[in-house]
Structure formats: structure tokens, C-alpha cells
Amino acid sequence: MTYLDRAQALKDTLIAIRRDLHAHPELSFQEVRTAQRVAETLHDLHIEYETGVARTGVVAYLGEGEPRLALRADMDALPILEATDLEFKSQNAGVMHACGHDAHTACLLGAAMLLSEDFAAGKLKGTVKLLFQPAEENFGPDGKSGGELMVEEGALDDVDAVVGLHVISTLPANEAYVRPGPFMAAVDTFEGDVIGRGGHGAYPHEALDPVWLAAQVINAIHGIVSRRINPTKQGVISVTVIHAGTASNIIPESVHLVGTIRSFEAEVRDQLHADLENAFAIARALGGDYKLSILRGYPTTVNDPKMAEFVRVMASDLMGAEHVHAADMHMGAEDFSFMARAKPGVFFNVGAKKDAVHRPHHNPNFDIDESAIPTGAALLAEAARRYLIENTK
Ligand SMILES: [Zn+2]
Ligand SMILES: [Zn+2]
Prior knowledge:
Structural class: alpha/beta
Radius of gyration: 23 Å
Low-confidence stretches: none
Number of strands: 16
Bound molecules: zinc ion
């Protein structure tokens, strides 16, 4: 029996875990109950584990010695008020598992169940390290996410390679997607003020209207990708927050702008930052001023070509080649990127579209086809099993 068959027998158990986590979502670095639930399950499987890794993460070991592969799942939820009518909807108002990290945690626990049976039966040699990572969606007070912190604490030091997956609610259920090389974008955020001089709305000539200045700045920002970046390269700048003003007859002092910057290559990333600065500087040319700060976020997620090919072949053998596809590049970002920089890594997707309704990630109506959970568990377990077998010297 393949892991895919054996995972079907665990389906109800894994779905129950996902629903329990879904009903009790916790924000980044607050995954206390979630970590406890993970620890209890590992304890029942007689798997050694350590809690408090990267603050609220859990790390566990199966087997010992070389070869050594890490499997990673993220555990945190988002600050979203859930709008579904699921019977297991969030009981923590304003917090929701709207990215599927509840499913990832269930997938990795499922992989632990499958692998622990084979380790106990003496069928596997080597080490599988399970990384239950906190805080993929947000930084802590030190500006670091859970993945970055885990790498910094050395969680990847004692492994040879790392594998992670993400369910995707908009891709057909139980299809796998993988690509070598750059996969997900680098993300930076910016925050700035366009500064003018306030005054009466009826006498704009006596003020310096920052709304007018900001309009020129935003226009210039929207021209950066189309006019300044090489058309064969990828980049995005989106202005997502604008705040100014208090009344219809008052010209405000300033306009606050916030947005996101996405790119794949270091040169493009630097150019986007420089041209964003130039766009804000238009305010100065027109007699006003500006402040701009750019916060560097996650780097580009780059799949190791050998590990990506390894997962493509593994998934094709397990599920049938017709269910394994070349993934598109995403402008979304992932802090798995830190792990894939520390060790040869591969991040791949498992489709989990539930029905004809659009239920995108980070949305109050997000939901998945839960049949993707045993599939994800089987893919992680099979990746580990094969890695150990193929890399045993
Ligand atoms: Zn997310
Ligand atoms: Zn996610």
C-alpha cells in the first residue's frame, strides 16, 4: 500500500485535527494551543519533540543519523473575521485560518503518523525532522518571522535538505504543482507621507494641497513597473492604503500612503526601491516634502533544481504524472524562503479548490477541499521516505 492509500485511512483523523485548529485559530507567535495540540499528537505517536522553538514552534525527530530531511508546516492564522457558516468556524472572533495553515499542520502530523509506523517497523534509516513553524504571516517585535527565527536558532543546521507545501484554494483539488528555481516573490513594504500645507478648501492657492501632490506621486508609482523595469522581468508596486483629511472644506497637512513591493531579482528589487523614492520626491519638486521608509521583508523563494525535480518525480510516481503540473511563479511571498536559503529546499503546492465558489486566500470566505489533507500528508511522507532511501550511502 502506498502512503496515498494509507493516508486515506487517516482521513477522518486528519480532518478532525484541521477542524479543531480551524475552530481555534491563533495569530503569529501566539500559537500556544496549536503547539500544544501538535505536541499531544506527537506524544501519542511516541515521537520525541521540543517546544518553544522560535518562541511558539515545535520541532520533532523521527529516526536518527544520516541522511536527514526536514519537513516544514506553518501554524499561524490571520486577523480576519471569518464569514463562512462552517460548523467548525473560528471561535476566536477576528482571527481566522484563512491561508490553510491549519491544513498544513494536519498534513505534517499525518506524515508523522505514516512515517512513524515505518520507522517502528525498521523500514526506514536516517532522520526526518518535523518543523512546526510559528508566524509565517507576520513578524515579531524584532522584525523577524517564524521561519527566519527558526533558521537563526539553527533548526536547519542538522538537516541536509528541506521540503514544504502550501495548499491552494483556487487550484483543482489533489493536483500537485512544482517548479525549479524562483517560485515566490520577495516582499517589501513601504510607508510614506506626502507633506504639503493645510488650509481652507476654498482657498487652495494659500495652501499647498498634499492630495494634489499625492495624486502626482501615485501616478508616478504606477508608472514604475511599466516604464522603468525591464519588461522581461517581474515586479509589482501596489499602493494599498491612503489616509488624509477630516472634512469637505479643509485641505489636510499631509497624505499617508502604504503599499507593497514584490520582485524576484535583487537588481529589480533595488530599482523598485530607488524609483519609489524618486516618485515620492515629486512632492518636493512641487514645493512640498515627503517621508518614506521601506521595510525589507521575505526574500525570493527559490527552489533547488534537484529538490524540485525530486518532488516532481516522487509526486508523479505517487499520484500519476497527469496529476503533477509545472507551477506558475507567484507574486505572493513565503518565509519558507529563509529555509530554502539555508539548505537545498523545495516548496510545492497542492490544489484544494472546494467548489465553484471563489474562496481565495486571506479572505473571510476562504475554505478548502479537505480531501487535500491526506494527499498533502502522503506527499510529505513519501518525499521523506524516498529522500532517506535515495540518499543512504
Ligand atoms: Zn498567507
Ligand atoms: Zn500561507
